[in-house]
Amino acid sequence: MGNYRQIMEMERVTKVAVLGAGNMGHGIAEVVAIAGFTVVMRDITEELVQKGYEGIVWSLNKLVEKGQISEKKSKETLDRITTVVTIEGAVSDADIIIEAIPERMELKKEVYKEVEKYLPDRAVVLSNTSSLSITELSEVIGCPDRFCGLHFFNPPIKMPLIEVISGDHTSKETFEFATQFAKKIGKFPVSVYKDSPGFIVNRILTPLLNEAAWIVYEKRGKIQEIESSAKYGLGLPMGAFELSDQVGIDVAVHVLEYLRERLGEEYGPCPLLVEKVDEGNVGRKVGKLRSPRRRGGGRSRGGS
Ligand code: CAA
Question: Is the whole-model pTM more than 0.85?
Fold first, then answer.
């Protein structure tokens, strides 16, 4: 267990590794660096990690333009962020590791196996998974008591909520530490004591996005009407399709597939969403959406 107790004192934390520089990864790196921590952001290629870095530059410039942070703070934030392409380079002297790679159980497990090789014995490992089992993920590394869910929302810089999820092996100290860390980076943590698929937010949100798609797929309503209903009836800040576009349709589909696998057929993604993913048309992160194209036949509701 080594220096395990030491890391539980927040003031000792200096370096945070963020694995994944995609939509969530680079947004998380930005939030953590703004809060004053040194951040090393990792992705699998130079191109991907650079794209993530440019996303941070864009976001910081926006915040400066809107008067939400000073130019000085923006520059200091950038100075605290470095990028790497190896897991060793990211993890080997980090106090906290935040994993934000794509939502695939097997992929995450592969990365955790690699992380374990270089993991300092004082470090805490936090997963930004939006739905996958924290218990199952934690069992890949040799210190599952130091593993916890820390789920941010998109865009991380704007969204105040963080779900802190305890797995079966997460120690009380790790859970408390993750909660304190969420507060330290200016977020509002909610405790999720039961590690169940989709936790709280995605158990509610992804079925909502899916139902919106089913209404269109079954020709019961048009996108414009659903968007107006979501905004002006349900009071959501964005329409359901606009939100899928922002979150990433691929992310929504992965979560729904996992919910289907663990909770039942009724959670299966609507073919309209699956089709978008098959086309690589997953939302604003890849550019402008094309209009939905139907394939003959399609899948029946709940089918695979
Ligand atoms: N960094 C900096 N600026 C950003 C930004 C970012 N990452 N993202 C958007 N902005 C900018 C926009 O470009 C826009 O700038 P312009 O006016 O120059 O175009 C500006 O912010 C918008 O500012 P507003 O004041 O109009 O809006 P806002 O800041 O009050 O709200 C919002 C923006 C927070 C995104 C709001 O629309 C919202 O809450 N949307 C819903 C988001 C949501 O529900 N996210 C959760 C999704 S679920 C999830 O993420 C989990 C999962 O696992 C699937």
Answer: yes
